[in-house]
Q: What sequence folds into this?
């Protein structure tokens, strides 16, 4: 168009003298008028510019076009041949850029300084490329990034610092890659990605999962944790993880039930994880949902594991129908700041099913927690002497007492001191104790003939200690009187009482 003469504030053309006394050449005047457009950047060739959107999709580009307009907020470079993203792809600072699309480019290299000039990027699409690894601190310059798409690449290695400084990241898509180890550092403690609400790890090469740590994750994160399409090994903890998600109607389970499959040992084809219930050889069973066991006097905390984010309000209802609304609560029940219910000094009447009512921005949810309160004298770790232990201790004590009796009693034959006393008359052999040890008659005669030490005869301990009343001075009634003892070995053998009762502990053979 033909250049117009400059005008004053009233809209009247200025005189040539007002411009310095001489008229500007037409070329210089045209450049002066186009200077703001050049400073802001013009739309590159093969691209379409609409306001602050720059679309260069399917433009057969092998590099990022330059220069880029500084006002660009959305840059679409998808479906091109940009195989390397260097640090100088954006020589100037693009303060307004918040979305960068680089999918379907065959991209195999991304510099760790590639995003230094786009600090306000919130959406980054690197999907459907040939990336093989996520290097150290690759995305650390994107502190405001919210959505990162890395699916359909060849990623097999993820550096533990690749996602550092992404405090606002909400959605991370890593599906259809070659990841063989679960990147638990992305979820542990919630410190690295505190705002993460969706993690897609589907169609990778995961063979096992840290089920215990995944069960401890909040339900709002498990609701968008996609693990289908992996060659997982079948086991009962995996089944219980998925079955719990189905009971809670988590989206990651409900939307992909058919694709949640695993491999049984020596099986040729994968089977559905939810089909493992009662199936051989595992014969898995579902674990009960939210069941807590405690004992009288304990303090317990009931968690409200809701899958809703942005909760507006919540309250608990006790088994007795009492509502716990305010933080701090009254009596033994107290509502904590994180929505959990704390019960102190448990009583038998505290047992039952508690309900947590949660009101979210769009939906409401109710969770139930069953509390079992055991008497410490009957159940649990408070027991010190239950029936089994008492029986065992009793058996051991009995055996010890029997061994003491058998092996620690004094010897039956000792040397008698003092003058020889005549043997007590044996008027009733049945009066002797059933536990007495009667010496061998022949051996006794030989000992008497030979004499013990100091020239004194040796008598049995039982004979010297037993008087007319029997062993230990106790009388046995009903005995048969015997004639006085006769001398000689043959006579001694005839003294045996045929009515005598021998003890099971006696070492004397029965003499007929």
A:
């Amino acid at each position: 168009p033909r250049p117009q003469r400059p005008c004053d504030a009233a809209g009247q053309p200025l005189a040539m003298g007002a411009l310095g006394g001489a008229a500007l050449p037409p070329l210089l005047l045209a450049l002066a008028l186009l200077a703001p457009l050049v400073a802001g950047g013009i739309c590159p060739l093969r691209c379409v510019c609409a306001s602050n959107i720059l679309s260069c999709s399917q433009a057969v580009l092998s590099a990022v076009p330059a220069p880029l307009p500084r006002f660009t907020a959305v840059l679409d470079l998808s479906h091109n041949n940009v195989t390397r993203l260097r640090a100088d792809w954006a020589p100037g600072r693009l303060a307004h850029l918040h979305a960068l699309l680089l999918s379907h480019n065959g991209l195999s290299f991304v510099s760790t300084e590639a995003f230094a000039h786009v600090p306000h990027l919130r959406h980054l699409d690197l999907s459907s490329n040939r990336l093989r690894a996520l290097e150290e601190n690759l995305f650390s310059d994107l502190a405001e990034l919210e959505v990162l798409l890395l699916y359909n690449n060849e990623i097999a290695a993820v550096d533990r610092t690749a996602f550092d400084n992404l405090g606002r990241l909400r959605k991370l898509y890593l599906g259809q890659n070659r990841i063989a180890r679960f990147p638990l550092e992305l979820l542990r403690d919630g410190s690295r990605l505190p705002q993460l609400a969706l993690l897609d790890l589907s169609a990778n090469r995961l063979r096992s999962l840290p089920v215990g740590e995944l069960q401890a994750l909040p339900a709002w994160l498990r609701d968008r944790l996609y693990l289908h399409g992996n060659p997982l090994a079948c086991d009962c903890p995996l089944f219980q993880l998925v079955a719990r998600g189905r009971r809670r109607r988590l989206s990651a389970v409900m939307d992909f039930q058919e694709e949640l499959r695993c491999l049984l040992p020596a099986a040729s084809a994968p089977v559905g994880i939810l089909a493992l219930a009662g199936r051989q050889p595992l014969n898995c069973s579902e674990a009960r949902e939210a069941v807590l066991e405690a004992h009288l006097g304990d303090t317990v905390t009931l968690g409200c594991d809701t899958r809703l984010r942005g909760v507006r309000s919540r309250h608990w209802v006790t088994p007795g129908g009492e509502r716990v609304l305010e933080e701090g609560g009254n009596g033994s029940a107290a509502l904590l700041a994180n929505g959990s219910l704390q019960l102190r000094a448990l009583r038998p009447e505290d047992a039952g099913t508690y309900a947590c009512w949660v009101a979210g921005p769009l939906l409401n949810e109710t969770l139930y927690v069953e509390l079992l309160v055991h008497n410490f004298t009957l159940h649990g770790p408070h027991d010190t002497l239950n029936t089994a232990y008492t029986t065992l201790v009793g058996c051991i004590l009995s055996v010890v007492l029997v061994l003491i009796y058998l092996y620690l009693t004094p010897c039956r034959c000792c040397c008698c001191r003092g003058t020889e006393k005549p043997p007590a008359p044996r008027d009733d052999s049945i009066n002797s104790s059933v536990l007495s040890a009667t010496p061998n008659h022949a051996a006794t005669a030989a000992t008497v003939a030979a004499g013990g030490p100091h020239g004194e005869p040796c008598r049995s301990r039982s004979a010297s200690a037993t008087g007319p009343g029997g062993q230990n001075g106790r009388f046995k009634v009903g005995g048969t009187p015997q004639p006085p003892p006769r001398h000689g070995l043959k006579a001694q053998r005839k003294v045996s009482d045929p009515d005598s009762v021998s003890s099971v502990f006696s070492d004397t053979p029965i003499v007929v």
